[in-house]
Structures are given as structure tokens and as C-alpha cells.
Amino acid sequence: MIQMTLIQIDNYGPWTVTPKPRNESDIQILQAELFADVQRQFAAKKGLVFFTRFDNMLAITNGINREDHFRIQRSIRNRFPITISMGVGTGETPYKAQKLATKALQKKGGAQSAERKETLAIDSLVDEKDSYIQIAHIDINGITETLTDNEPAFDTNFIVNKAQHYLMTKLIKKGALLFFIGGDNFMSPCNGLSPQELIDIIEKIKEEIGISHKAGIGRSNNAEDAAYLSDLGLETIREGNNNKIVHILEDETSKKII
Amino acid sequence: MIQMTLIQIDNYGPWTVTPKPRNESDIQILQAELFADVQRQFAAKKGLVFFTRFDNMLAITNGINREDHFRIQRSIRNRFPITISMGVGTGETPYKAQKLATKALQKKGGAQSAERKETLAIDSLVDEKDSYIQIAHIDINGITETLTDNEPAFDTNFIVNKAQHYLMTKLIKKGALLFFIGGDNFMSPCNGLSPQELIDIIEKIKEEIGISHKAGIGRSNNAEDAAYLSDLGLETIREGNNNKIVHILEDETSKKII
Amino acid sequence: MIQMTLIQIDNYGPWTVTPKPRNESDIQILQAELFADVQRQFAAKKGLVFFTRFDNMLAITNGINREDHFRIQRSIRNRFPITISMGVGTGETPYKAQKLATKALQKKGGAQSAERKETLAIDSLVDEKDSYIQIAHIDINGITETLTDNEPAFDTNFIVNKAQHYLMTKLIKKGALLFFIGGDNFMSPCNGLSPQELIDIIEKIKEEIGISHKAGIGRSNNAEDAAYLSDLGLETIREGNNNKIVHILEDETSKKII
Amino acid sequence: MIQMTLIQIDNYGPWTVTPKPRNESDIQILQAELFADVQRQFAAKKGLVFFTRFDNMLAITNGINREDHFRIQRSIRNRFPITISMGVGTGETPYKAQKLATKALQKKGGAQSAERKETLAIDSLVDEKDSYIQIAHIDINGITETLTDNEPAFDTNFIVNKAQHYLMTKLIKKGALLFFIGGDNFMSPCNGLSPQELIDIIEKIKEEIGISHKAGIGRSNNAEDAAYLSDLGLETIREGNNNKIVHILEDETSKKII
Question: Does A181 lie in the same domain as A114?
């Protein structure tokens, strides 16, 4: 079971234009620093946050309880001009977990409701014994040589965004999520996705748009270790210098559970 | 003429996995803080940075000279574990400007070259009298009501990413760039794009994928003011509560030049 | 028993001037952000860091174990241009605890040794059942009215520094430490100091230099709660609007232990 | 003429305890990040900020005008839960400059006034042609060997604080200010202080408390360069390995003016 948290800035849209539009660079800094900050706090408990839309962030939070979430909300309130609400859900797939997390929060009021503030809506938390996360770290083959060092920066960015769009479209159907994490890298929380299904998706995308990917898959009972194992898996393929598409690594904690 | 700067982390890929993969949350924090930091520094001179791929960022930098760029590189070297190189270019369209910026930097060595470090490659700088920037701030109509407050967070994210992909695909053909700036917001540096061309693109996307956008267009001789005017333009449409698709605002500095 | 950690930047002096002196503002930002960063990470585990000399920081770390310390070192290495070593010690008084923490680290090599890097030297850790912290939050009476709003800013700063110097001089003899925490506020980890001893010190300082203080004392098994109770104690005196010098609050965890 | 800016958090004391005391670690992070942030923004214009009391900071701001100050206030308002007011003054000595800066601000209302918010009170600005700054960078001789590597961390901190107190006491009488900048380092904006006067102060302190200092003095028309030259001056003494107490460096901009 994977546990996901939706982190939502309270009533943010109106704030950004009250009393008149705030300076765009300030908004960008605020959003980046808020992401960095909640990342650091969830990471202290082995969670992992994805920036998503910045005003709505999704995090893998297995092992992180109600008090931990509350402490993070308090800390943000004390240092930022905005506050955050959170919804927490769990599921056999990341898609289901974030869906329940979202629903729990939506029930408490809208994102632009002036009343809902610092809500912590927990649908469910994963028990330690059921905690299991599968993450795929996916990158684009040979991007530095073919794109970054040869094409205009925006064209490379366009290709990466295109890859993201195709990966998202196919993974969401399998209950897996996909997040851009910088460079040519994506992370996909993907409990329930089989390695063969991922290989099929990667091969299909190569066929459709000519972009080749590879992926390390990591499995653990916490996000930090699952992500790390997926990184190691990707490194193993890079070093192997072969045409392998997927490499799986798992730790002791993940061997018995799904 | 618009001036754009490509900001590239030196030899970053290898660094992230040496001696072994670095903790993913640390990488995410590092990237977000680097973006926030260069944003703050360029913003002090009325520039505007887009996070793009985080290891490669694009910025509008009209009015920012060689020494300013150099000082930012020095400041990053003193406070981060990585260094940055930059390329600067100018053009009648943002696409051309970033292309020249990229080329200038590529000539000095690859992104993963161990030799190239803290390079500042300037193809050209915009003269004050030719300085002109057009920015469109585009958002999705009614997203909070229809999506954020009703759909799972990742589905909303998926829709926003889809909109981004379609906008990018069409704008790049017109020499305009498109960057996601959080929430349901995009910024498009778009010198040379006519308001009617933008309306056509927005209407075509509505037809193709059923997502409606609106846009404020701002024009000035610096990125900060152009962005601000585009924000005001968008607010004007929101307040008008009509079906207007585009609203243009420009300041004194931008009236004579293109 | 209180547990203290000495956090020391490795080989920092030489780094600040290699190859030539680094820009002073960058050094100041680096130091402030390093402090904010380790603060945030220790705080996630209910610790509390004092900036001390910035290149050497002291923290109260009851309840924070070897792995926690290691994870913080790793995180700093991944995001800063410098690394940190740490020493950990425990004692009946804060003075003894920091002394053992320092000794443990000194044994591993000097602060400017090129060899010693990311050392984690643990003399001892406090057991949960022995964990006890007493903190005094001390401020200067009526500073806003008499000084901030009437005297030149530097004169007020001078008075605060003078108060700090006198408080430090007297507290250190009792095994208590004193840290400036901004404004007119000081925090004194002071296990073993009796309320009457603190009252005597405050009265003696008033006699000697004419500066009046008051103090809230908090007691708990972790730094966060002890500090919070000391804040509440101070608020109680402020609200009482009387001439009380010290107010003590303690929680359940601290009632049986010293 | 030196120009100094007093940066004061508006109505901060009450904020820290409303509705109840805020978590101490959050307060510490907020203060450190605010300092880092205004530092970065003033530094973009070659200014230099000293953390002073954190809720009241003093900065050397020659060359930084009304609009620059206003833009920094706006930027803080958009990203922090607090706002800042500023006073600006100029003088033949730093003491006079900060005194006028403070007075200008005090006239607009108290630090804890609920009405005064984001005030920018400018007594005067330095003309480019009169701009002149003298900074002394002072450190303690041989501190790593004698103290950091041998004494308990807090004892070293105590010695550094004692040195600060003695330096402040003597320098203020000469119209010079003194700020602790980390480690064993102090910076003294000291227009009008002669090198011999500084030597006398250093020798007197050695006599009184047995602590030896040395100092680099830098002179320029902006704070960044003056501070850099003072760093270089200190390095020159360190490398000379002699008993020199003061070394002066100045650039072209500072040769004619005082």
C-alpha cells in the first residue's frame, strides 16, 4: 500500500492578485521555496514530494503520521505568507491513493474557499506492516549528446515535455503517476505496474514519437529508499551500456508485501 | 528585440550520481533553491527566469549586462555545490534569441564536459533603445470549479500538462516560447506574435481538446513590467466576466518599438 | 540529562579565502542559510540549534540519534559547497554536554584539517528515560519603548550585546549556556540552574549595569517543548504585568527526572 | 559619506506570540532567511547587510536609491509572513548615518505600532561623487589553534563575544560600528577612523583582556568593494606572517574623497 498526501495552498489564486497582481518573480520564488521547504520536512521522515503544480503538490508519505503532517503545516504558517491544507489517502495504486487524498480534502471545502484553512483531512494512513512503494525513475536515452549539446534549449525542453505527456497518458491508465523531476528525468510512483507493462509503454512511445527511455525500478517500504533503489537501477543500466530497458532493485522491507 | 539567457548547470548529470546517486529529495531541493536564487538575482535587475528543466533554465534578460551575469555566476559558485554557465542571445522572436544563446554556449563545450566551467558566452546584448518584450500570461478558464475542487489532483495536473503540450506545440511554430509557471498558468514570451494569432491558437485548442484559455498580453522594455502588464490584462478579463480571450496592455517604453 | 551537538563546518576558514577572498555578502548568505537549514532538519526531530559562531553551531539534540545526525550531514553535503562534522555529548549541565561534544570532535582532527571531513563523533547519547532539558527564555524589560523607538539602532544593539556579555559571564559559571536569538531575546539551556540562582543573576546584572531582565523557564524531555514552555512562561509574566522575574512551566515528561 | 539603512520588521514582537508563542525553531529560520534574503537583494546593488538583532538590521547602502529600497520591501511582503520598514541616513561616520536613519524611521511610528507598515523613511541619500566607505575586517589571531581545536565550543564562543563587546565599546566612541560576521570575524564600518586609532584600540584590548586582533582596512565608493579590499588586507597580513596589526587597501574611487 502506498500513502499519498495532497498539499494545497489555501485560497492561493485570489492571494496572488490581491490587492493587485503580485510581482511574477516573487511568485516564482515563493513557490519554489515552498516546494523546497515541504520537501525538506517530508524528507526528514523519508517522504518525497513532487512539485506537480506548485500550488498543489503530491507527496509519497508512507510512515508519516498525523502529528508529522500537522507540524509541517504549523511550520509553513510561521514562515510563509500563505498556509497549506493537506489531504492524505492510501491505495493499492498511487492513482487511487491520490484520489482518496484529494477527495478527503475536497470534502472540507474548495481550494479558493475563504473559510477552509490549514485543514488536515486524513482518509487513511498505511500501517507499517503494509507499507510498500514501487517507484520507476525514467530518463531519456542519450539526451545530452543528441539534444542538450546540439539543439536550442527550448527545443530540448519541448521534447522532454512531449515525452512527459506521452508517459503520463499511458501510465495513468495503469494507475501510475508521472512527475517531471528536472533534466530529462521522470519519477513514476507505480505500485501495481509490472515491469513488462513499463517495457511495453516505453517501447510503444519509441514507436509513436521516436523517443527512447529506460527505467530503474525501486521497491521499499519508504519513499526515500524506493527512489534511491530506482536511481541505482538506472545507474546499473547506464553502466551496463546495453539496451536494457528496465532494471529492478528491492530491499528486504519490500520482498513480502505488495 | 528580446534578450534571453540560457543558464546551465555545469557537468550536472555526472555530479548527481557521483560517487553514487545522491538522495532524490536533496536533488529536488537543490534545483528548486537554485531556481529561486537566480530568479531573485535576475529579478533585482528586472529580469525573469523560467525553471524550464531546472538544470537548464531560460530567462528574459533585457537590460542585464555582462557584469551582472558574471556577478550572478560568482554568487552561485560561492553558495552552491555546483557552478553555472550561461549563454546570452537576442532576436526579433524569443525562439531566435534562445537559439543564439544556446549556440553561443554550445560552442564553448558540452553540458557534461569536465573542462567547461562557469563559461559566460554572449552572442549579443540588446541596446536600451531596441529593448522590447511581449509576454502573454495564459490561464485555463474556470479550473478551480471544474477541476481542482472536483477531480483527483493528478487528473487536474494531467489536464494542465496536456494544455501545456498543445500550447507549446502551436506557439513554437510562431517563434514564441511557453513556460508553465504553476497552478493553471503559463507565460509565453512572444515578441512578433499578433493578438489574432494567439486568439486563433486558443480557439483551435478549445476545438481540439476542449480546454478554454484566456490571455493577458503585456509589452514593455523589461521583463518585470511586461509580465506585470500581462497579469493586469488577465485580471481585466477576469473582472469583465465576459468571453474575451485576449487583453493587451503596454507601457510608454514599448509603444514605438518592435 | 541534556544532549548537545556541536556542528562544525569542515576546513571553513581556508575555503572562504581560496583562491581569493569570497564575496562577503555571499559568505553571510551561506552562513545564514546553513543555519536555517540545519535548524529545519534538527527541528523536524524536536531539536533546537543556536547559530553561535555560524561556522560552529551548538544544538540541543535530545532524542536525535546517530542515523538522524548522519542524514543531516548527507543532506548538507548534497546542497552546500561545504561539509559539516559533528560531535555529540551529554551531561548533567549544558556546559558539560557541549564540552564532551567538542572533545569528541577535536579528537578526530582540527577544524582546519584537510583530512577530517564529515566526521560524526558521538561521545554519548541520552536515553529516553533520562531525557530532561531546562531552558530559560530571557528578555530585556521594556526595550521597545525605552530603546528601539528612542535610541539609534546601533546603541540599542550595543546595549543588547552588553546584556548578553554579562549574562554569559555569570551563567557559564553555573554550567549554563547563553545564546542570542534575536531582538532582545536570549535562550539559556540551563539544566541544574535553580530558579533562585537565575533571579540572583538577573538582580545582580540590574545592579551592575542597570539593565532589567525577566525569564520564562521551560522543562521537558525535548528541546522544542522546553523552549515552548519557556516562551509561555515569559508570556505569563508579560501578561501579569507585575514585577515577577521568573516563571516556570514544565510538562509531564519532565516532572520526575533531572 | 557613508549611507546606512535600518531595516526593521514591522510590529514583530507581537506577531511572534500571536495567538500564542510561535515555535522557536520557526522563528530562528524565519529570521535567518529574512537576513539572507535582504542580503542577497542589497548585494545585487553592491550593498552589505549586517544581521545586527535580526528584527533590526543595519546595512551599508551607498549607491542604492529610493526605488531599490521600495522594490526590496515589496519583494519581502510577497514572500514572508511579515513586512519591513526602512530608514535611510548618511553621515561622515557610520554612527551618524545610522542615527539619522533610525530617527527618520522613528518619526514615522514605533516598531510595535500597528499602524506603521512598510514605511520607507529617507533622511538623505549619498551622491555618487561623495560616496566613500571605509570598512575594517577584524579577526582574532590564531583562534583555531588556541581555541577552536582546544577549548569547549562555548568557551570559544564566550571569548569571541567578549572580544566583540570590547571592540564595540571602544569603536562606538570613535563613530565606528562593529558587527559580528561569524567565526572570529568582525566588520567595522569606520569612516573617519584613522589606522592609528584602530591600532591603538587593538593594542589596548590586548592589554586589557589578552586577546590579539589584526585588521584589513578597505576603502571604496561601495560596500562590496570596500569589504573585499578589507578581506584582501587581512589576507596580506596573514600571508606576511609578521606582527602587523593593520593593512590598508583602497581603490581608485576612494582616493580623493572622505
Answer: no
Please state, in angstroms and rounded to a whole number, the distance separating the CA atoms of residues A194 and A197.
Answer: 5
Is the CB of residue B185 less than 8 Å away from at least one CB of chain C?
A: no
Q: pLDDT for C14-65, tens place per residue?
A: 999 999 999 999 999 999 999 999 999 999 999 999 999 999 999 999 999 9
Q: What is the mean pLDDT of chain A?
A: 96
Q: The domain that contains C68 carries what CATH number? A: 3.30.70.1230
Residue C139 confidence class, pLDDT cut points 50, 70, 90:
very high
0.90 exceeded by pTM: yes
End-of-domain residue from the set C109, C130, C151: C130
Q: Among residues B91, B107, B129, which one ends one of the domains?
A: B129
The nearest CA of chain A is from the CA of D113 a distance in Å of 20
CA distance A94 to chain C (A): 26
Residue C162 pLDDT > 90, yes or no?
Answer: yes
Q: Where are the beta strands (DSSP E) in C100-207?
A: 120-122, 133-140, 179-180, 185-189
Q: Which helix (H) or strand (E) holds A37?
A: helix A24-43
Among the listed residues A67, A73, A64, the one whose alpha carbon sits nearest the alpha carbon of residue A44: A64
Whether the CB of D37 is below 8 Å from some CB of chain B: the reply is: yes
- Residue C115 touches partner D, C-beta closer than 8 Å: no
Q: Are D105 and D160 contained in the same domain? A: no
Q: How far is B79 from chain C (nearest CA, A)?
A: 6
The 3-class SS string of A219-257 reads: EECCHHHHHHHHHHHHHHHHHHCCCCCEEEEECHHHCCC
pLDDT tens, residue by residue, A146-162: 899 999 999 999 999 99
Count up the domains in chain D and report the number.
Answer: 2
Separation between Cα atoms, residue C86 and residue C5, nearest integer Å:
7
Q: Report yes or no: D45 at the B interface, CB cutoff 8 Å.
A: yes
Find residue A89's DSSP bridge partners.
Answer: A4
Within B67-184, strands assigned E span 84-91, 120-122, 133-140, 179-180
Contact A74 D23 (CB under 8 A): yes
The cell numbers describing B133, all together, are 518584450
Q: Tell me, yes or no, whether A105 and A149 share the same domain.
A: no
Is D113 in the same domain as D211?
Answer: no
Interface predicted TM-score of the whole assembly (ipTM), two decimals: 0.97
